[in-house]
Specification:
about 400 residues; alpha+beta; 14 helices; 8 strands; about 45% helix
């Protein structure tokens, strides 16, 4: 294993600086090491309705085929910085989790094609750098802490995308905690999280955590975004999404510093103690619509919980009755459509072909074999011969 490349400080925070190939590779290796460490303990993905190993493979290979051209269309209309500035930093599917996951999934697709003998390690460099450039510039614009990866933030394993003004506004609407507030928000959060996962085929792409935001008084703010499909991106939600009065939510929790918040590389938080809601000092549920965060009353939260419960039941029944191969196509689409929200902001949604490549659709029978899928997943996510999920770009060693 070669020694890490020293990064020019401008790599972290100067969007106009062009990293060298060695610096790009160091960024790729940093992300790949964190990705492997996070996935080390869970290379078997389980779902009652979806063949997760199968659709993960198919969607990440699809990402490798389609993401570079989609990004080129999007950036013909708006720069990464303009895309980030076009809306609130929280409360949409143009979220930190989808930005962070995009290059990880794309690079995993590269590894899959190499392992399958359909590509070489020294091919596709121009496309790969286009994807990394977009991720880097958008991340610099999105984050307020001057780093590209959560593990490099202060404190380590944190992410910060909200500025002081919005943070103050959110804090000003928090409600003091009491048993009734805790019970109401706990029930809402559980219902919404379960429903957001089901909409997204048991993936976490609609649930994004940022924080901890230190408040300077022995407490911090943790923000959890849960964004349902309000834009008709997912056809399997037709007739169901319309039953929800709101689709984009931000849950804000003020917690004491005795609680630890640890964010992984793509923006999922783990709390210690795990039942952190019992330690909440203040909390509030916000709905995001048309660029505004609206604090919801507890009565509105209770009412919304009922709507979500009904939508969850209806969607589960629909998916349970859907042919397994069709469900897998839904999931492949979901996981490879992370750029839809960005395209809508750029005003070029209809200029992009969002269909799944025929070769990927046809690969279902091959990758639906559990042994084949698990073998590929294990070889890419937890490779035995290297500490990173990703091998160097451009044929470097």
């Amino acid at each position: 294993m070669s020694a890490p490349t020293a990064l020019d400080p401008r790599v972290q925070n100067d969007p106009d600086y062009e990293p060298t190939l060695e610096e790009w590779n160091e960024l790729v290796q940093q992300g790949g090491r964190a990705y492997k460490n996070e996935l080390q303990a869970r290379t078997v993905f389980e779902s009652e309705l979806f063949g997760m190993n199968t659709y993960i493979i198919m969607s990440m290979m699809e990402d490798y085929l389609k993401v570079p051209e989609r990004l080129r269309v999007i950036t013909e209309h708006l720069t990464p910085e303009e895309l980030v500035r076009a809306g609130l930093p929280v409360g949409s599917k143009r979220s930190f989790i989808n930005l962070a996951a995009m290059p990880l999934h794309y690079m995993t697709g590269r590894e899959l094609y190499v392992d399958l003998g359909e590509n070489s390690l020294d091919s596709g460099l121009a496309d790969q750098l286009d994807v990394l450039r977009f991720w880097r510039r958008a991340t610099i614009a999105m984050r307020t802490d001057g780093v590209l990866y959560n593990m490099d933030a202060t404190p380590p394993n944190s992410s910060h995308v909200v500025g002081h003004d919005l943070l103050d506004d959110i804090r000003g609407h928090l409600l003091p905690n009491d048993p009734s507030t805790t019970a109401t928000i706990r029930k809402f959060a559980a219902r919404l999280t379960a429903y957001a996962f089901l909409e997204n085929c048991d993936a976490r792409t609609a649930v994004c955590d940022t924080g901890p935001y230190d408040l300077g008084d022995g407490t911090f703010l943790a923000l959890r975004e849960l964004c349902c499909d309000g834009d008709a991106d997912f056809p399997w939600l037709d007739g169901i999404r319309e039953t929800l009065p709101e689709h984009r939510f931000v849950l804000a929790y003020r917690l004491p510093n005795s609680v630890d918040m640890d964010n992984n590389v793509w923006g999922t938080a783990w709390f210690t103690p795990s039942d952190y809601l019992g330690d909440v000092v203040e909390a509030r549920v916000f709905a995001q619509r048309d660029g505004d965060l609206r604090p919801l009353s507890l009565d509105e939260v209770k009412d919304m919980t009922g709507h979500i419960r009904k939508a969850h039941r209806a969607l589960y029944a629909r998916l349970a009755e859907t042919d397994p191969q069709e469900r897998n196509l839904y999931a492949t689409q979901m996981y490879s459509w992370k750029l839809k929200a960005w395209a809508r902001i750029a005003g070029c949604y209809d200029e992009i072909d969002w269909s799944i490549s025929p070769s990927i659709v046809d690969s279902y029978q091959r990758f639906s074999d559990p042994e084949v899928a698990l073998g590929l997943i294990g070889g890419v996510f937890v490779p035995a011969d290297r500490d990173s999920c990703f091998r160097p770009l451009g044929g470097l060693r």
